[in-house]
Write a structure and sequence with these properties.
63% of the residues lie in helices and 0% in strands. By secondary structure, the protein is mainly α.
Length: 126
């Protein structure tokens, strides 16, 4: 049986009325959302154009805020700070001292390796 045969058999079937109590139950179950969703729809629906306008205003505000933030960052990158020659020498000394502390010195000997034996020693070391 192909699809066309099924459609023709379906068309030959008489339409029956759905019992009224079934209809009410089906429609109440099939309604979209809960009571909270219905409340939101009723509250927002009277003026959807106003809500679209409000959303557009928020997008403009966010765009201006973003543009202002990027404009403020650019001058700070270009502006340097002025310091004296003495301050630069002190800064260089601090950098060299930090580099000496961070890098290992050549005079430091590596730790001596300990024997790796599975055998237990007794109290006399044997």
């Amino acid at each position: 049986m192909n699809f066309d045969d099924f459609e023709q058999k379906l068309r030959r079937q008489p339409m029956r009325e759905i019992p009224s109590d079934w209809r009410e139950e089906i429609l109440s179950t099939a309604s979209p959302g809960s009571a909270a969703t219905k409340w939101w729809n009723e509250w927002l629906w009277p003026s959807p154009q106003a809500w679209v306008g409000l959303a557009a205003v928020w997008f403009v505000i966010l765009g201006l805020n973003f543009a202002a933030r990027t404009d403020r960052a650019r001058p700070q990158e270009a502006v340097g700070f002025a310091c004296s020659r003495q301050e630069l020498l002190e800064l260089r000394k601090q950098q060299l001292a930090l580099a000496r502390l961070i890098t290992p010195s050549e005079t430091t000997e590596p730790p001596t390796p300990q024997p790796r034996s599975d055998r237990r020693r007794n109290e006399f070391g044997v």
